[in-house]
C-alpha cells in the first residue's frame, strides 16, 4: 500500500476589495510603518489618500510591500534600489508576456 505524505501549507488570501490602513499594512508585513512610508515616498507603493493617517492600501499593495521588503532585506538594497529591481522585474514580466502572445516562447 502506498503511504502518502501529508504536507501542511499555510497562506493568506487577500481580496483586491480589501483596504488596509498604514497601521494594518505595517502589522501584516511585520515592519515598522516608517519602512512603508519610505516605500510610498519612493513610488513602490501607491496608496489612496493624501496623508499617512488617510492612506488606504489595496490587497495588491500587501503583496507588493512584502516582495519589496523581502528584496530589500535579502539583497541588502536601499529603498531606491528595491524600487529599481521591482521596475525591472515588471518589465521582464511584460516582455515575457509579449513573447508568449507572439508564440516565440
How does this structure look, described?
This protein is mostly helical and 105 residues long. The protein has one domain (19-102): Multidrug-efflux Transporter Regulator, Chain: A, Domain 2 (Orthogonal Bundle), CATH 1.10.1660.10. The chain has 4 helices and 2 strands, in the order βααβαα. Strands 1-2 form a two-stranded antiparallel ribbon. Helix 3 crosses helix 4. It is globular and about 45 Å long. The model has no long low-confidence stretch (mean pLDDT 90).
List keywords for this structure.
mainly alpha; Multidrug-efflux Transporter Regulator, Chain: A, Domain 2; 4 helices; two-stranded antiparallel ribbon; about 100 residues; globular
Note the topology:
Blueprint: E1 19-20, H1 22-29, H2 33-41, E2 57-58, H3 59-74, H4 79-102
Antiparallel strand pairs: 1-2
Summarize the structure.
The protein is mostly helical. It is 54% helix and 4% strand.
CATH architecture term: Orthogonal Bundle
CATH class: Mainly Alpha
The largest β sheet comes out as: 2 strands, antiparallel
Rg measurement, Å: 17 Å
**Lateral arrangement of strands in the main beta sheet:** 1-2
User: Structural class from helices and strands?
Assistant: mainly alpha
* Fraction of helical residues: 40-55%
Number of domains: 1
pLDDT average, as an integer? 90
Quaternary state reads single chain
Strand content: under 5%
CATH topology, what is it called?
A: Multidrug-efflux Transporter Regulator, Chain: A, Domain 2
Give the SSE string: EHHEHH
Give me the number of helical elements. 4
Amino acid at each position: 500500500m502506498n503511504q502518502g505524505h501529508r504536507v501542511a501549507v499555510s497562506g493568506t488570501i487577500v481580496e483586491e476589495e480589501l483596504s488596509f490602513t498604514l497601521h494594518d499594512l505595517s502589522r501584516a508585513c511585520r515592519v515598522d510603518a516608517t519602512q512603508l512610508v519610505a516605500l510610498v515616498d519612493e513610488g513602490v507603493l501607491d496608496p489612496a489618500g493624501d496623508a499617512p493617517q488617510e492612506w488606504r492600501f489595496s490587497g495588491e499593495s500587501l503583496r507588493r510591500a512584502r516582495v519589496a521588503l523581502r528584496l530589500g532585506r535579502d539583497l541588502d538594497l536601499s529603498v531606491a534600489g528595491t524600487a529599481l529591481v521591482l521596475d525591472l522585474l515588471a518589465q521582464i514580466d511584460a516582455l515575457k508576456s509579449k513573447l508568449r502572445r507572439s508564440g516565440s516562447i
